[in-house]
């Protein structure tokens, strides 16, 4: 069985997975509620701020949401994320230690790959649902389409530079299940507590595949 079956199911919930940098854990729950209400249930909280784990704990309580931890780098990150309630993990790349930790913790992983060799190596280890990162810097949708031609068994979630203006270019590819984007939760709107505005952005993003 593919080691990424559960990851694929989560990725297939909506066309966009919000990539979230949460500076204030008090904003985590209303932010998650707005995104879920807008039709984006899978949420990636990046472990880039001191409040990230607290944010994951809060978001894990939101009905209908599936919260994951992004920027997993070390086995310690994996254990902390799982303990906080993360239901999946996302990493910019992949190491044997990170993969082993996710498998030991039973945390579905979306590992990052930017080249055909990286994708092939992960496929060899049982991972056929990958994050294409950094998407735009790695050649964008044309590069991902080209990688997909000889590797039709592998599907991707492109992240990094994905925006409303280019999201459809990625989502139209046969090897793309969803894309990761941060534009659905702009920092200023989060700081202002503009949950209605964020829900509207989420609703627009949820319809990108229509």
Summarize the structure.
This protein has 210 residues and is an alpha/beta fold.
How would you sum up this structure, described in words?
- The chain has ten helices and nine strands.
- α7 links the parallel β7 (129-132) and β8 (155-158).
- The model has no long low-confidence stretch (mean pLDDT 97).
- It has 210 residues and is of the alpha/beta class.
- α2 packs across α3 and α4 (75-84) runs parallel beside α5.
- The chain has helices at residues 5-11, 28-37, 52-59, 75-84, 96-105, 116-124, 140-148, 167-171, 187-192, 195-206, and strands at residues 16-20, 42-46, 66-70, 88-90, 109-110, 112-113, 129-132, 155-158, 179-181.
- A six-stranded parallel sheet has the order 5-4-3-2-1-9, sandwiched between helices. A three-stranded parallel sheet has the order 6-7-8, sandwiched between helices.
Q: What is the total tally of β strands?
A: 9
In whole angstroms, the N-to-C terminal distance is 30 Å
Which value, in Å, is the CA radius of gyration?
16 Å
Approximately how much beta-strand content do the residues carry? 15-25%
Number of helices: 10
Task: Kindly state the percentage of residues in helix.
Answer: 40-55%
In N-to-C order, the SSE pattern is: HEHEHEHEHEEHEHEHEHH
Task: Please state the overall shape, judged from the principal axes of the Cα atoms.
Answer: globular
Mean of residue pLDDT values = 97
Major β-sheet annotation:
6 strands, parallel
Strand arrangement in the largest pleated sheet: 5-4-3-2-1-9
Structural class, judged by helices and strands?
alpha/beta
**Low confidence ranges:** none
